[in-house]
Amino acid sequence: YKVWRKSRAIVREVIWEIRVKSVTHDKMVRLMVGRDLTELFPKSTAIPGEEVLRVADLSLADRQRPGRFLVQNVSFAVHRGEVVGLFGLMGAGRTELLQSLFGLHPQATTGKVFVGGQQVQINSPAAAIAAGLALAPEDRKQEGLVLPLSVAANVSLSSLKKTESWGLLSSAKELQLAGGYATRLRLKTPSLRQLVRNLSGGNQQKVVLSKWLATNPRVLLLDEPTRGIDINSKREIYALINELAQGGLGIVMVSSELPEILAISDRIVVLSQGRKTAELTHSEANEERILKAALPTGKAIA
What we know:
Layout: E1 2-6, E2 12-17, H1 25-33, E3 51-61, E4 69-79, E5 83-88, H2 94-101, E6 109-115, E7 118-120, H3 125-131, E8 133-136, H4 140-144, H5 151-156, E9 164-165, E10 168-169, H6 171-184, H7 201-213, E11 219-223, H8 231-246, E12 250-254, H9 258-264, E13 267-272, E14 275-281, H10 287-294
Parallel strand pairs: 5-12, 5-13, 8-11, 11-12
Antiparallel strand pairs: 1-2, 3-4, 3-6, 6-7, 9-10, 13-14
């Protein structure tokens, strides 16, 4: 089995040749990235500030099955500078919970949401953005980006007022806005006018994050932010999440990868069949406790 990695001297080089039987996940990552797996998750110790988000008894009715719920009576809080991981098996209601918070299912959602201690009514994405929430969706190509548009156009989509001039979009302001985030997030693109469909998965995700950071959110909701991107891009996304939390942003992150959720989260909320079955601090959490709570037999915690 040959492992390839980019080289400064040439486009690619073979850095190792190894028998398949002796390959492990950690060894493969170390060879591809050029560093130890422990360095993949750059996590600083969190010092949580004041509460920025509180969710109380949030429920989302299942429209296809009357009387059933996709999310039922879920409550949790997020503080400034804190990453709250959201974990559950397939069908646990992770994505549906974030979508409900972002106002995508207003007719089927009940419960209370508080931002900065004030109750807010979120009945649309526009209301969520106004309240200080931002959602980077799981499917970036279908829901997070407009692929035929440029990088600059995509970055400005959620904050068009910043790029207006006399009621018309200003190309110069659009490029200026996108340029600032391209530098901050180390976006790799030949031009800000490049069509976003031509970027790699990791750089497309950076465009999605740039678009939402441009709204100056108080809480960033991330649904599988590293799905479908290469190892080096994952590390850059982890570093960015850590940086944003250190800057005071409250972050809720969904991930189906246990090592990822354990490494990046300050607290972990576990869902099973739409209910919260556990809430663990970073020091309390381990794979066994999380998986036990995630299994459908787990009992909901009030």
